[in-house]
Each structure stands twice: as C-alpha cells, then as structure tokens.
Amino acid sequence: MPPRAAGAVSLSTKKLGKKTVLDTFRQSGSFKCLFPRTTTPDLDAVLLNTAGGVTGGDSFRFSGKAAEGTALTLTTQACERAYKAQPAECGQITNLLTAGAGARLNWLPQETILFNGSALDRRLRIDIAPDAEMLMVEPLIFGRAAMGETLTNIRLRDRIEIRRAGTPVFLDAIRFSGDWHKHLSRPHIANDAGAMALIVFASKAAEGHLDSVRQLLPEDAGATLLGSDLLVTRVLAENSFTLRRTLIPVLRKLNKDTLPRCWML
Q1: Which residues have CB under 8 Å from 175's CB, separation 6+?
Q2: What does each C-alpha distance from 112 to 27, 43, 48, 76 come to in angstroms?
Q3: Looking at the predicted structure, is the pLDDT value of residue 3 above 70?
Q4: Mean predicted confidence (pLDDT) in 206-231
Q5: Cβ contact 20:77 at 8 Å
Q6: N or C end of the chain: which has fewer CB within 10 A?
Q7: Sequence-ordered list of residues with C-beta below 8 angstroms from that of 81, at least 6 positions apart, any chain
Q8: What is the mean pLDDT of residues 128-153?
C-alpha cells in the first residue's frame, strides 16, 4: 500500500493591546500554517498542505479559535486538489472553527479542485458566540477544464454546519457517488456548470448587505437571508475564472474591502 499523508494544525488567538496575536499553536505531519505580515491589527493565517493534494487514505484536520474580541482570517496558500483514489479509500478533511464573544472569524480558503476518480469526505463546523461575526466561503471546481477533464466518476461527501450559541442556524450537505458531470448538466440542477461556491455571512449587519450583494451577482447566482443576521449566497459558474470574478467583489464587500493576499496572486 502506498504511503498516506496526514497532518493536523490547531491554533487560537488572544488580544495583545489592540492587536490579535497567537495564543496557542501546534502543527504536525504534512499540514502547515504560515503567518504573513499585515498592516492591520488582525491576525492572518495561511494553511498549506505540503503533500500537494488529497487522495484516498489521506487525513487532514484543522482547529481554529478566534477568542473573545479578536479578529482571525484563515485562508489557504493555493487551491486544494482532490486526486484519484482507490475504490475502497477516501480522503478526509475536517475543519472545526470557533468564534468567541465579539470576535470576527473569516474562513476564506481558495478553491478545491475535484479530479476525476476522486473520493473526498470533508466536514466544516463553525461555532460562533451570539455577538460574533463570521464570513465563510467554500468554492469547488469540477475537474481541470483546460485539459478537457469531466467528472464521470467521483465520490463526494461535504457537510457544512454553523451554530450560534450552540443552536444550529445553517446546514448544507452533499452526498454523491457516480457521474457528477451528467448530474450537474441537467438544466434544473446546475445547467452544466463547471464550478460553484457557497458564501455565508453571519453578522448583525447581514441584512443591510443583501441588496448590495445581489447587485454584484450574475444571473446564475443568488443571495437570501435566513434571519436578519445570516446572509447566504450561492454561485454557479462556467469555470474557475468566472467563479472567482464573482467571488472577489462579494467577499471584499462583506470583509471591509479586503481579502487575503493569496487570493490576489
């Protein structure tokens, strides 16, 4: 059996004067974290999979906590890649995030690219305090369009759960096995889209952003409120370039006109 990649990163923040700084930090295996310099008092962290991707049998786990009154932005150095897996194997990615009282948490990973034959089980759980703010995005790319790849055989389980003060406020789950391209090519499902993304913004200011976000969206995207403090946006796109062209202005709008540097390279 070929070697398998595994890694874990955990971190938490604390206040130091007006700045957000690291409180605890641990990393192991082929999962690393970098901390670029910023000109703001917030803390940015960049996750890096040194194995180069995820295949069957791989396991990666991240735990991040924005403590009371802190501001933490999490992103990835590059797109994640889910490679072809053996029939009985599946790659595992688990992300557990927490935002304390008055904290701001941004979960802004770059795209995950699904390769034909990939098998991925990904879980994201976010727990936020009643007065915390949270912005998250999860973009998915369906194959390598430049190489003419179509996803005729994949296994995907993807679950996103958001809780506020312990109460579930949002749940999104995908469970699929088979011909992904054929499934998404149906007009009433995805009309042959090559990429999609989910954006969730949890904030007392969410309702005030609804109209301005809708003005930034193309016809194959939509935004709605699930309560006055939860704005949900879904985007379908022809390819990764078109998807990113939609995502960047929306994310900047919801994040005080800024994005991690990795997104702009």
Answers
A1: 156, 157
A2: 21, 23, 13, 10
A3: no
A4: 97
A5: no
A6: N
A7: 52, 53, 54, 112, 113, 115
A8: 93
Query: Can you give the pLDDT at residue 194?
Result: 94
Mean of the per-residue pLDDT values of the chain: 95
Q: Among 77, 104, 136, which Cα is nearest to 261's?
A: 77
Angle ∠(151,156,159) on CA atoms, nearest 5: 140
pLDDT of 235 higher than 80: yes
Q: How far, in Å, CA of 139 to CA of 108, rounded?
A: 9
Q: Does residue 88 contact residue 54 with C-beta atoms inside 8 Å?
A: no
Placement of tokens 């994040």 in the chain: 255
For the purposes of burial, counting CB atoms within 10 Å of the CB of 177, is it exposed (0-12), middle (13-18) or buried (19 or more)?
exposed
pLDDT score of 155 more than 90: yes
- For 115, which DSSP code? P
For 17, residues 6+ apart whose C-beta sits below 8 A from its C-beta are none
Phi, psi of 130 (to 5 degrees): -55, -35
Positive or negative: CA dihedral 41, 102, 74, 206: negative
Among candidates 33, 210, 201, which has minimal Cα distance to 126?
A: 201
Cβ(195)–Cβ(141) below 8 Å: yes
Per-residue pLDDT band for 2 (boundaries 50, 70, 90) equals low
pLDDT (0 to 100) of residue 264: 85
Q: How many residues are recorded in the chain?
A: 265
118 DSSP 8-state letter: B
